[in-house]
Structure formats: C-alpha cells, structure tokens
Write a structure and sequence with these properties.
Elements (H helix, E strand, L loop, with lengths): L2 E5 L1 H14 L6 E4 L5 H8 L6 E5 L5 H10 L4 E5 L8 H7 L5 E3 L5 H6 L4 H4 L20 E4 L9 E6 L7 H14 L4 E5 L6 H5 L9 H6 L3 H7 L1 E3 L2 E4 L13 H14 L2 E5 L7 H9 L2 E6 L4 H16 L7 E8 L6 H10 L5 E7 L2 H10 L13 H10 L26 E4 L3
Parallel strand pairs: 1-2, 1-3, 3-4, 4-5, 7-11, 7-12, 8-10, 8-11, 12-13, 13-14
Antiparallel strand pairs: 6-15, 9-10
Helix pairs in contact: 2-3, 7-16, 11-12
Length: 426
C-alpha cells in the first residue's frame, strides 16, 4: 500500500497511531505542514503515484485539490475533518471534488479506511437535512410526472407522385392517410387523378358524391368539410362516380384548394396522376411541403421514370431536399433500395429513402375489395405505413414511444425533450 499523508499538528499524532497499527508507517510518506504551506505540498504530492492520500481539511485548498484529482484520478482520498459538522463549507467543497471519505472523528479513522463511502453517504456534508439521522420528517420537495401527450407537429402537405402507371401511388397515399389518423392527426386526402375515383374506392366510399368539384368551386375550410366524404377517420375529396365527364383540373384552383386545406388539417395528402404535365400533378408539386416519389424496384422503367421526374423538378428549381423515396412492391430478388438511392446520388439527386413496402398483391386486392386499407390492421411498431406517416408529419419516431407515469426522485436527471412536466408537491 503506497500511502501519502499531508497533515497538521492537530491530526499528526492520531494518524501516526493508525499507520503504525496497520504496518504502513515505514512506507508512508508523511508531511506535517501549516495551513499556508499545504497547497505547495499537495502540488508536489500529485507528482508521486499513491493508492491512498490522507489529507487534513485545513490544507485542502479546493483548487489544489482539483489539480491533484486531475493528476491522480485513481487515488483514494480520505479527508480528516475532526470536529466538523454537516454543512461545513470546507468539507462541502471537497465533497464537490468527489472526495467522499470524510473522518470527522479520528478515533473512527480505521473504520473509514475499511468502509469506502459513496456520494449518498457524503451528501450530508452538502445539506445537513440529508443526513440519515437528521431530525424531522422527510418531505417530498418536488414531483416529476411524465405524461403521454400529443407531439406538436407542424401541418404538412404531402404529394404522392410516380411518373409511371401501376407503381402504387394511390395505395401509398391511402395507407399513409390512414396511418396518420391512427397517430391522432386530422387528415384530408385529395385525389387529383381526375380520370378515376380510386382513392375513395380504396377507402370503401360509395363514390356517388366525390366532392372534388364542389371543393374547387368553394375552396374554403367550410366548403371542403361540407364536400368531403369521411371514411376510417380520413376526409376524402375525389372525382365522384356519377360526375360524368370530369373537366380538366384548373391549376390555380387546385393550388388555392391546397393552400386553404393546409391551414385546416394536420396533413393533406395529394394523390396525383402519372403524367407530370397534368394540371393537378403540377399544382400538387408546387403546393407540397414534402413529395413522396413512388417507384417499383423490380421495374427498371419505373426507377428511370422516377429519376427523370426528379431531374425535371431540379431543373425547374424545386427543392429536392423535401423529396423522399418510397420503394413499393418490394419483391425478393428485386433491386435493393440502397442501389436505387445510389443511382439517384450518381445523378446528384439528394433523395433519401422514406419507406420500403413489401409486395403483397393478394392482401392489397382483398383490402381494396373490402374498402379497408391494410394500414388499419397493421399496428406493428415496425409497420412501413407508420414509419411513412411519421416521416410525412416530420416527427421523430422516438417521440411517439409510449410514456410512463410515476414519481422520480429529486436526484433523477430528466431530459428536457421528453415531454416532462414539473409540478410542485402538494
């Protein structure tokens, strides 16, 4: 045992007896100093390795002790503070330097050496009320309650595009809308594919009153709400089954509808037509905060068409940082999504992957016939639709984890971004 001792005349005799009794006296380096000379001796002691340092509180200058700690972090320090009481400022300063072994009675020094202390035992020197034998009843000074609350999410408009037919734009748009509703968001789905009313059909709507024409004529919050059909919690605007010959969509009217809808709903999902020069698709690309570019990884034409649309958007000055890739109908043996994103990077298209949806045609056809999208029954935490909805809402997936309620002790660190609510004890 390599022992160093920096003492005053008041503690030298008692410490010498303990060192003699333990057989450490001959090997120990003992310095008996005045309080004024203590810092210099402590600085010199930091240059010599030791397993144990016995330090008199009268010479434990805080800055010198901190330097010693930095130089010898593995050395155990026992502070000799005879006659001191909890709350003593000098002892509290050493405890804050991670010196937890304090001998306030030199007759019990041997006990202190044999029983290393921790912060819980030394905390009484910082606050006398924390002493185990402190008088009075213990009071709860503070409660911290962690509650489950809705995560604040900025309102978004998301356009689902895919410049080739059959890549599953409507499937993605409908299941995205349903998954966002399951997360507690208000969602409006606008089917801008004027030739059909497929979005409404996916959701099981009757389709006799699509409402899109009425909403375009009155693009107010009240007009949208009156014209839309509600199904599975989603409000839908689409071409009605009985609308007859549907006129071409006016680009300015679609843009006005999107602006008003974005102020009234947490998420507006725009299902577009395949042709990029379609007025509805063009207006959707201009109104959307985020674009989901849908492609079939097993279809090279689909991937090339998606890249061509992104290149066109880049040339027109669109912000591709808000574009995300959805690999739909991912089949075993198909092109890996990372290969596709690498292909986009080679073209200098900064489009990241948002979701990978496995190819399940029978399941989706059955869901279409039943008017019940698959996202309604896919409640897994790993559901691609859930991940896609959170990406569209711009939320951190970790913030949607279930929260626990309960009391935490006053020494528990609570992260400020974890929806904690501090409340005074009653």
């Amino acid at each position: 045992m390599i022992v160093q001792a920096i003492l005053t005349q008041d503690t030298a005799a008692a410490v010498g007896s303990v060192l003699e009794a333990r057989g450490w006296a001959e090997a120990a380096s003992v310095s008996v100093v005045t309080p004024a000379g203590g810092p210099a001796v402590l600085e010199g002691a930091a240059r010599v390795p030791a397993e144990l340092l016995l330090l008199d509180v009268a010479v434990a200058e805080p800055r010198g002790l901190l330097r010693y700690r930095l130089a010898r972090p593995g050395t155990r320090i026992v502070l000799l503070a005879p006659g001191r009481r909890p709350g003593d400022r000098a002892v509290a300063a050493t405890v804050q330097s991670q010196v937890y072994d304090v001998a306030d009675d030199l007759d019990r020094l041997a006990h202190v050496l044999d029983h290393p202390a921790d912060f819980a035992a030394a905390a009484r020197w910082l606050d006398p009320s924390l002493a185990p034998d402190a008088p009075g009843e213990h009071r709860v000074l503070e409660r911290t309650v962690i509650e489950s609350r809705p995560v604040p999410v900025s309102r978004r408009t998301c356009a689902v595009v895919g410049p080739k037919g059959g890549v599953g734009r409507t499937t993605v748009a409908v299941n995205l809308a349903v998954a966002a509703v399951a997360l507690g968001r208000s969602v409006l789905l606008v089917d801008l594919h004027a030739g059909v009313w497929s979005a409404a059909r996916h959701l099981g709507c009757a389709g006799s009153r699509g409402g899109l024409l009425a909403a375009l004529a009155d693009p107010s919050a009240e007009g949208i709400r009156a014209a839309a059909e509600r199904r599975h919690g989603v409000l839908v605007l689409s071409r009605g089954r009985d609308d007859g010959l549907f006129p071409a969509l006016d680009r300015e009217a679609v843009a006005a509808l999107c602006r008003i809808a974005a102020q009234a709903y947490d998420l507006v999902v725009l299902d577009t037509a395949p042709a990029p020069d379609d007025p509805g698709t063009y207006a959707a690309l201009g109104a959307a905060d985020q674009v989901l570019l849908t492609c079939d990884p097993g279809d090279p034409v689909s991937v090339e068409s998606a890249a061509a649309l992104a290149l066109l958007a880049r040339d027109l000055g669109r912000n591709l940082g808000a574009w995300r890739l959805v690999c739909n109908r991912l089949r075993p043996g198909a092109e890996e999504p990372r290969t596709i994103t690498g292909y986009f990077r080679d073209l200098r298209l900064p489009i990241t992957l948002a979701a990978m949806v496995p190819d399940e045609p029978e399941r989706h056809f059955a869901a279409l016939r039943a008017g019940r999208p698959v996202a309604l029954d896919d409640t897994r935490a790993t559901s691609p639709w859930r991940s896609l909805a959170m990406a569209a809402l711009g939320a951190d997936p970790e913030l949607w984890a279930p929260r626990r309620r309960g009391l935490l002790s006053r020494f528990t660190n609570l992260r400020g971004d974890r929806l904690g609510a501090r409340q005074p004890a009653r």
